[in-house]
Amino acid sequence: MITFIKGKLVRATPALAIVEVGGLGYKILIPASTYPHLPQIGEDVFFHTALIVREISQTLYGFIIEEERDCFEEVIGISGIGPKTAINLIGHLPIEKMHQAVTSNDIASICKVPGIGKKTAERLMIEMRDRYTKSSKHYLPSDFAIKLESDPEGQKITDAMNALINLGYNQSTAQKAIKKSLKMLPDSVDLPTLITNALNHV
Questions:
Q1: pLDDT beneath 70: ranges in the chain
Q2: Residue 104: how many CA atoms within 13 Å on its side-chain side?
Q3: Domains of the chain, with CATH numbers?
Q4: C-alpha closest to that of 67 among 156, 182, 165
Q5: What pLDDT was estimated at residue 45?
Q6: Most Cβ neighbours (<10 Å): which of 24, 83, 165, 179?
Q7: What is the tally of helices (H) and strands (E) in the chain?
Q8: Pairing state between β 24-29 and 57-63
Q9: What is the DSSP letter of 78?
Q10: How far apart are CA 6 and CA 86, in angstroms?
């Protein structure tokens, strides 16, 4: 199983990225929401990956955030939902909003995702609600998610988190480091300083 890939970004579109590692080029399908957060062509990139093996194909799916990869693997475990639907779901509905939709029975939000009808949405919500109940995994805490969405400085925090994740740290570690830095630094701190300071806390 290929659990992650770190290498040079050679090509990127909203649907896929090609990463060079040791002279080999890996084609990785990505959620649409990942594309705006990718580095420039030629720069290093890090993906958490899931390898899906079928009778006539082997497809690699990549995610900047580890929890997205974990969610993808959970979703494709639901009867009737394949990788294409799962990648669309994650690309159009952030993990925190998906969790909120499932726990509040918000079928309309799930149905907005291309390729998901009402019956599929209902089955997904029933299955995922049960998995959330049994799972010990922790998704992005609501207070931090709200801060990212509502704070005028939210984009800076998001960029800092992505920078740490691209360096190989998982989401939980990056989040804790940035929260510590935000408590110590002034609100006007620039992005490079925030990243540098956060690295001292990982």
A1: 132-155
A2: 10
A3: 4-63 (2.40.50.140), 66-134 (1.10.150.20), 142-199 (no CATH)
A4: 165
A5: 94
A6: 165
A7: 9, 5
A8: parallel
A9: S
A10: 23
3-state secondary structure (DSSP) of residue 50: strand
Confidence at residue 153, expressed as pLDDT on a 0 to 100 scale: 58
Which residue matches tokens 């649907």? 15
> What is the Cα Rg of the chain in Å?
17
Three-point CA angle 159, 143, 139, nearest 5°: 75
* Alpha-carbon span 178 to 199, nearest angstrom: 8
95: its two tokens: 């993990």
The dihedral of CA 23, 43, 171, 195: what is its sign? positive
Closest CA to 94 of 146, 23, 151, 46: 146
Q: Which residue has the tokens 């997904």?
A: 124
At residue 25, the pLDDT reads 96
Which two tokens mark 105? 């029975």
Total residues belonging to the chain: 202
Give the tens place of pLDDT for each residue, 82-129. Answer: 999 999 999 988 887 888 888 788 888 888 888 888 888 888 888 887
Beta strands in the chain (DSSP E): 4-12, 16-21, 24-29, 44-54, 57-63
Around Cβ 188, how many Cβ atoms within 10 Å?
Answer: 7
